[in-house]
Amino acid sequence: MFKRLRRSAAYVWENRPNRSTLKLFDWPLFIVILLVSLFGIVCIFSATSYEVTSTPETIMEMVNTQSTYYPGQQGIFLLVALFIMTIVAMIPYPIYSRFATLLYVFVNVLLIATKLLAAAGRGGMNAFLAIGNQGFQPSELCKAIIIICLAATFAKRTDPIRKLGEVLQMAAYIGVPTFLVLIQPDFGTALVYLFVFSIMFFVSKTNLRLIFIIIVGLVLIAIPLLYYMSTTENFRMTRMYMWLDPASYPDEARQIINAQIAIGRGGLTGRGIVSPGSYASLGYISDDHTDFIFAVVCESFGLVGGCSLIAAYVFIVARLIYRITHTESAFGAFIITGVLAMYLMHIIENICMVIGLLPVTGIPLPFVSYGGSNLLTNFIGLGLVENVIMRERLKKVEKKVNTPAYQL
User: Which end of the chain has fewer CB atoms at under 10 Å, N or C?
Assistant: First the structure.
């Protein structure tokens, strides 16, 4: 173990970043994500604003008359996340593959410790560990680590998965951390784990017939599970009913109904960041600075603001897909695929649950929702992606320089 650490340290030093490496950083991807994060701070400020009788005339008046605690905290989280992202990006990504097994053990130990040590929060969840006066959600950090572990596992295979026994082995691999998250209980995060695994499993060129058999099996398991949930007192089933018919659950679905009203009130260009009678300032939408931040985006900035944010997400997704297709390393391609799947799950589920297309699961909107744990995880994911991009592009440049035609 110590020999491996010494060899890895030597490898990191020999392959440390230099000016030529940093030039290959994907700056458009980074800049768009940074702009979305800064936009998120503005939206958090709007979501946590107090009720006003008139719109402030200047930015200074707005800042002086409103609370800056949550946007200020998010700004600090952003600085910390950028620092950690830089560290993650600077360590050559093949190093992470060497320690995938150790990281997997660390994930499971951390999740077990969280269940045992975390105080029960809202809904009885044991998901947050206290760090000073802040809460940290280990299951969020584990998303990025699980992406590394799954990428290393899939990349080491020489042949696609073709046997049911291999599927069960992989299912058990992701099943352990997923189960540890489910018993917290945190259904939303567990869904992210499974979605990331499913996408990476699909792109690993697994036999399509085997995938069909797995889907049929999951459906057969889901039918009795849904029947059991429908015949017992279960708040998740209530959420399903609220999603299908919110008007029949006016009290339970108030969050969803008010969020959709706020979206409509935004109109084309929005009501502004701090405006009289906004649902954000009146406190009509619970969790409007976290899970339901998209309603605030649309109320404050209207259809233009909501579509602009979605356009930024489309650019991020398209950029990651492009990078996957231009990555020669299997491990690197799986890392980018995993990060893409994590972003996609959060973006689609969050926006669709706010506008009523999917049930509410409590999943934050990437780079916009308030919260240090999720923001840190998303930037660690970006650090992994930039890591792969820089070193893959550097290899191509070196290969080009060393070709006889180029040397002539």
Answer: C
